[in-house]
Amino acid sequence: MAKNHRSDRPPAGAPSRTAPGVVLDRLASGPSRASRITHTEHLPPREGRHAVWPDRIRTEVVAAVQAAGIGHPWAHQARAAEHALDGESVVVATGTASGKSLAYLAPVLSALLDGAEAPNGRGATALYLAPTKALAADQCRSVKELSQPLGHSVRPAVYDGDTPFEEREWIRQYANYVLTNPDMLHRGILPSHPRWSSFLKSLKYVVIDECHTYRGVFGSHVAQVLRRLRRLCARYGASPVFLLASATAAEPAVAARRLTGLPVVEVADDASPRGELVFALWEPPLTELHGEKGAPVRRTATAEAADLLTDLTVQGIRSVTFVRSRRGAELISVIAQERLAEVDRSLARRVAAYRGGYLPEERRALERALHSGELLGLAATNALELGVDVSGLDAVVIAGYPGTRASLWQQAGRAGRSGQGALAVLVARDDPLDTFLVHHPEALFARPVESTVLDPDNPYVLAPHLCAAAEEMPLTEEDLALFGPAAEELLPQLEAAKLLRRRTKAWHWTRRERAADLTDIRGEGGRPVQVVEAGTGRLLGTVDAGSAHTSVHEGAVHLHQGMTYLVRSLDLEDSVALVERASPTYTTVARDTTSISVLETDTEIPWGAGRLCYGSVEVTNQVVSFLRRRQITGEVLGETKLDLPPRTLRTRAVWWTVTEDQLDRARISPEILGGALHAAEHASIGMLPLFATCDRWDIGGVSIPLHPDTLLPTVFVYDGHPGGAGFAERAFHTARAWLTATRQAIASCECDAGCPSCIQSPKCGNGNDPLHKRGAVRLLTVLLEGAPEETEGAAGASGGPGTEE
């Protein structure tokens, strides 16, 4: 039940504007609660700096903005609009709720009004790209409200997979501001460009919102989609200006240039006001339970976050709890609803879950309920992280470090968007990185956000887009410079594979199927698996193909809208998982085995007697079993074998080797070598997100006492995407700092023999066996003694894909 209700609190569920420090004091007021706060950061309020709109912004647009209650723009809004009007592509990289939308909307709406007065033709058009459907729908609502005084000159419309077919033709012919996502641009708009010819011919602006999310494989695909868009626009005589927005990005102009392939001006001086932000780091307590190999177990971040969501809702504090997984979002909402029902049954209905995989109508209903205030609390995945205007939120709880500082600040920024003070709480998981961060707050609050890592030249990314471009319009030698230096090398391979055929001076697509279907730009690979209720045939939602083996295998616990199901069967051929209602007292976690072979070593440098390497590898992975864990405590109840086919991945990796002499100096005997390597591998995977814009689930690792390709004890860390995503390369270039932090995280943990806070991994296929904590510390100490000083700085000098230029 909700804890420590005091008499000075408002009635349960009543709206509140309590100061964030007071809210935090209430959350920490119970027995042992205060000791869970390891650090509190106070960000003071900031005054805003006004400017005036450029003269070229239409007076009607200025009047509409003023009618919406905005008398004058902030200085960064006016500056960004000026660049857009000058025909310069620009990225606005200012804080959350700083008005980036208006910075690009003012010039866009002015252009649409100018176009409406054109004597012939359709007039100017604009395209808006969002990483999620929810954000595009939210932006469309905002544009309609803002442009209402402008009449029918502005005709916004959402065009995505949820758009009814009967509306699509109207949008193609008449809408002049089309809001969509990169997936629909890739699969729907570009392959059908003749039907979009009048829109593309008049395309004046392309808005790319939340551009920092386009990283790794997804970002690399989007970069090539944008190059295909630019090529078709040129075919129709247009050269659109790109307007990019990002709340959090390091070197935003560099990242925007890599994404678009164009020079981009940067506007990063935030002139907007900001309310006070109180940011607390929260570590759940140790329990009396013991996990794998007898390791001490902390209370889960899921259980802790559910308590905080419950208490915030009882106080009438409007809040969102961000969770890293779909299952976690469902579980937190269920726990909070049960505890709220014990306080006030009506409150249980004011908390819900929000995640990807829901049906469109379910998502829209939740967005409306949160926007209106009907819902007080929401447990959400990062599907709600990006830009959706949820005015009036007072607090954000983040259940587990979201993988990057960029995402952390993005999620924290969801609260306080109306200018009031806000509270953010990061609840640490039992994980090396989370534990490190709550005890080293400077790693969060004294460091800039990460650089955006993407590699458009990745051949696994580029090849299908060359095919798609050739189907859209025969590919010529003049086009190759647009797609990057790797394009010319790939064409003979695509010809040999009989995907493209050269006729005279152009390459043509040869197949009957659509070239755009060759790739899933989110790197998920394959057809999504449909989750179907066995008894009724009702479609509950979908799971991406890449995670189906681990999330909807036979016997898996599946949560949907607060309901619990057990997976009865998984049909990989038809991509269907049949589920049935159940009430298990446990959750399930898949186990797998992984082997790795070196295909090619690109770079190799000595680390004392050992070596640090970067290159291409082949990884073979197979899910072999699953564990049943008690819901709240995480206690392991049993293991069940599975029979699923292996999967093979060709990707990029960083790896390091040690010699017999180094093992002797580290006092590593053959009996503990495997455990020391395995522990160092786990901890290094957990720490890499501090140095590259990745999540530990984006990467994998393998350690082996005698690897057949290196003939030495070796630890590998690899990108979990075909062709690589830039993360392993970033690890190679920051290896000294990365492995130093890894050693520190293991050594400073208070456990004796290793625990989830230092060397145990939640996704270990070997059940976290063997592991040797002290051996890992000694091994890393000896390895780092030979680390060259210049390795850490190589990232800035390389200039290669996935590094800082």
TrEMBL record:
GO MF term list: 3'-5' DNA helicase activity; ATP binding; nucleic acid binding
Gene3D superfamilies linked: P-loop containing nucleotide triphosphate hydrolases
Disordered, as annotated region: 1-20
SUPFAM superfamilies, A to Z: P-loop containing nucleoside triphosphate hydrolases
Domain annotation Helicase C-terminal: ranges: 304-460
GO biological-process terms attached to the record: interstrand cross-link repair; nucleotide-excision repair
Domain spans labelled Helicase ATP-binding: 81-267
Keyword 4Fe-4S: no
Keywords, sorted A to Z: ATP-binding, Helicase, Hydrolase, Nucleotide-binding
Signal among keywords: no
CDD domains linked: DEXHc_Hrq1-like, SF2_C_Hrq
Protein's UniProt name: DEAD/DEAH box helicase
